[in-house]
Amino acid sequence: MPHTVTRRARQLSALALVFPLVALLGACGMQEAAPEPERAVRTLTLQSASSGQVHEYAAEVRARVESRLSFRVGGKVLSRKVNVGDRVQAGQVLAVIDPQDLVLGQQAAKAGLQAARANRDQLGAELKRFIELQQQGFISAAELERRDLAFKAAQAQLEQARTQFEAQNNQVAYAQLTADAAGVVTAVFAEPGMVVGAGTPVLQLAHDGPRDVVFSVPEDQLGRLREAAGLPGGLTVRLWSEIKPGAADAAPSHALSLREVSAATDPVTRTFQIKADAGKLDARIGQTAAVLLSSPRVAEVIKLPLSAVLQTQGQTSVWVLEPGTMTVKQQPVQVGGADGNEVVVAAGLKPGQEVVVAGVHVLKAGQKVKRYEQALPAAASAAASR
């Protein structure tokens, strides 16, 4: 019994020590969280400005007329006399195929022509004699008619043989591929030793003459393209070779006139191919360029840096600073487009408001902030203190 009393006394004394410790820990856990520190943010006071959107598309200078040349007859390519980039003149021989079979056909057609001519001459002489015999009464009129029909058939066969001979002469001439017009060779599709069929492309020739600036635009920009094409200076081009590093705006621009809009989109890119008349643009075939679509300038709009815009749950918004309480609130806005690296706000803001333009992703509604002040260098701060 004394031992039992002693054990219980020890347990009670241990519990007496534990209860104060638990109470102390509970009191520590109930302490209030430390207030969030004020965040320094960059702000911008909104002002009205004018905006004119400019869209830029990569383009290429091409010849207005560009044709793929091919042989009219098939055969083995013996030689190709031009390469990509060579300038050619109208009538110049570009490639030659083996004419051996064509020459044999020409010789056969010539022999057929000679045989038809001899047959016609023989029947013509016989007809002349039978006319005299019929006049003397030695043969009937029916016999003379039969001889006349035979002569006419021989004459028709001669004309047929002559036509075949001329066609075969043309076939021999087709063994040489010649340029239809002066221009520049832009592609080669056949090499010596290849057997090509009639109509198989061998060369691609860009004809001298007008030039086009070719580019592609998405389908939602077709209306903007037609609008820009109807404005003075709305559709211009800059050659990449004339653009200096860091001075793209200083590159000379040249006016374009819209010439052709594709009737259907490209099945892969889903864009429309556009051809614009380059006019007096001094450019070589294949040069790259930048086409600029400029829309009319709109006055009294609000523009913000891209860093000021926040996208949350499909809604575009910005943080507006309340100067009285130095807190921020989230303000939904409607974006009307882009002007260079700035966003044009169509609705939701008004001039005079102060908007956070940096650090927007770490702010919360009602959070206290302070305006960011850039620290001065040590020498400047010392001079300012004086």
Task: Describe the structure concisely.
Belongs to the membrane fusion protein (MFP) (TC 8.A.1) family. With 386 residues, the chain is of the alpha+beta class.
Strand content: 25-35%
> How many E strands?
26
Count of DSSP helices?
A: 5
C-alpha end-to-end distance: 89 Å
Instruction: Describe the global form.
Output: rod-shaped
CATH class of one domain: Mainly Beta
Sheet with most strands: strand arrangement? 15-14-18-4-13-17-16
Overall mean pLDDT = 82
Compute the CA-based radius of gyration. 46 Å
Spans of at least 5 consecutive residues whose pLDDT stays below 50 are 378-386
- Looking at the overall shape, the CATH architecture of one domain is Beta Barrel
CATH H level, superfamily name of one domain: Efflux pump adaptor protein, beta barrel domain
Q: What's the main sheet like?
A: 7 strands, antiparallel
What name is given to the CATH topology of one domain?
Answer: Elongation Factor Tu (Ef-tu), domain 3
Q: In percent, how helical is the residue content?
A: 25-40%
Structural class: alpha+beta
Keywords: Coiled coil, Signal
Protein name: Efflux RND transporter periplasmic adaptor subunit
Family: Belongs to the membrane fusion protein (MFP) (TC 8.A.1) family.
GO molecular function: efflux transmembrane transporter activity
Task: Write the SSE topology.
Elements lengths: L1 H28 L9 E3 L1 E3 L3 E3 L2 E10 L2 E5 L4 E6 L6 E2 L4 E5 L2 H37 L4 H33 L2 E3 L4 E6 L6 E2 L4 E7 L3 E8 L3 H8 L5 E5 L14 E2 L1 E5 L9 E7 L10 E7 L3 E8 L4 E3 L2 E8 L4 E6 L1 E6 L2 E6 L6 E3 L12 E3 L6 H8 L1
Parallel strand pairs: 1-26
Antiparallel strand pairs: 2-25, 3-19, 4-13, 4-18, 5-12, 6-8, 6-11, 7-10, 8-9, 10-12, 13-17, 14-15, 14-18, 16-17, 19-24, 20-21, 21-22, 21-25, 23-24
Helix pairs in contact: 2-3
Protein name: Efflux RND transporter periplasmic adaptor subunit
Keywords: Coiled coil, Signal
GO molecular function, one term: efflux transmembrane transporter activity
